[in-house]
Amino acid sequence: MQLPVKLGVSTWLWTSPFRTDDAANLFEKIASLGYEGVEIAVEDPTLIDSEKIYKELKKNGLQAIVCGAFGPSRDLTSDDEDLQKNGLLYIEDCLNISNDLSANFFAGPMYSAVGKARMVPDAQRRTEWNRAVDNLGKVCEMAATKGLELALEPLNRFESDLINNVDDVLRLIDELNHPAAKICLDMFHMNIEEPDPGLAIRKAGDKLLHVQVSENYRGTPGTGNASWGAFYEALLAINYKGAVSIESFTPENKELAEAVCIWRNLAEDQDTFAREGHEFLKRWAANQLD
């Protein structure tokens, strides 16, 4: 049975930060490879001209997915209230961009800063958790007023000490108790944190808005030991009809490569990564893997 999903790929596979001037050539390439969606990583909202980017999306027949980049200056759990406010302002900018690009949701690990992984006392952990809930409550309201939802993404233990797996994000959503709060699951993080990726997807159920994929080593889909069969069966079981988007990174950008610990090329080149990844995902979605 065909899995009724749209295949997408992240701008992070080629460039960082994504700029308006990147859109024309990159979107044309992505469409020519057969993708139906592009996951636009918004690192700096001031580099995004939504009107121009939307024209390029329409020209190439691509659906936009918008995701965020949450460094230490955008930390909703910080002791520094200015950093919390900065995070909220950044998210508001990204929600506006999402609306402008006709995306239905905004995705990412927006609850805390990426790379914030420490051993801290239980009292501090509770304080930071409560800050995340309080601030994300505000974000949920912002999203709802714009007709958008949030796809909250768990990260592995080496990149976050707050939300690591589907149980964590379901607890967060339960405490938020807001219809805009939904889930993004990333296969790379799941391969580290989930004993049973298929069960994790089933737990997410109808709250699952977005799926990101790559191999266990962040490489081209189909070249590693990721649980593709379990993913297929679970997504089919929950009647998932969203996008499945490759998220990996180019090591050419040293700042981003350092943040995600990519020190070497993961494919012959980034175009080969995207082309072979699409070929594999197309067979996988059609349940035609050997």
From TrEMBL:
Domain Xylose isomerase-like TIM barrel residue range list: 27-264
Pfam families noted in UniProt: AP_endonuc_2
Domain of life: Bacteria
Record InterPro entries: IolE/XylAMocC-like (IPR050312), Xyl_isomerase-like_sf (IPR036237), Xyl_isomerase-like_TIM-brl (IPR013022)
The name this protein goes by in its record: Epimerase
Native source species: Sphingobacterium cellulitidis
